[in-house]
Amino acid sequence: LQISGYLNLLANTIDNFTHGLAVAASFLVSRKVGFLTTMAILLHEIPHEVGDFAILLRAGFDRWSAAKMQLSTALGGILGACFAICAQSPKGAGETVTWILPFTSGGFLYIALVNVVPDLLEEKNPWNSLQQILLLCTGIIVMVLLALT
């Protein structure tokens, strides 16, 4: 088995830990914010987990082992949620949310930009670049509209 498979599992566990932090902290804000955050993370996780599964297969894991290892990384999300809940201040959830949500959202923005910006800079076709930028802006507008409702 290649080391890349194990590194991917470690990265996926850390990623799932931050997702658990974000979901738990969002539910501490309100049910609406919690459900929106959960839906956003689920939509992100579906293609992400499929890609991670393919990485594990390419690294030499058989299908069953890759599936078990992928499932085991989900424990990171549970640990993250437990950490967020246990980190609540006796004064209320407000103090917990003030550091968890900026930490996790900043991490998500960083990862998104690290993945998207290099592709935009390498794109030769201006129409494709414009489409990608418009889709990014559409995503931002959808998030703002959901936050306002």
The main pleated sheet reads as: none
Helix content: over 70%
SS element count, helices: 6
Number of domains: 1
Helix/sheet category: mainly alpha
Strand residues, percent: under 5%
Strand segment count: 0
Q: What do the pLDDT scores average to?
A: 85
Q: Name the assembly state.
A: single chain
Q: How far apart lie the N and C ends?
A: 49 Å
Residue windows where pLDDT falls under 50 for at least 5 positions: none
Order of helices and strands: HHHHHH
Shape: flat
Radius of gyration: 18 Å
Produce the secondary structure layout.
Elements: H1 3-29, H2 31-58, H3 63-73, H4 75-86, H5 94-122, H6 126-148
Helix pairs in contact: 1-2, 1-3, 1-4, 1-5, 2-3
Membrane topology: Multi-pass membrane protein
InterPro entries: ZIP (IPR003689)
Protein name: Zinc transporter ZIP13
Give the gist of this structure.
This protein is mainly alpha-helical and 149 residues long.
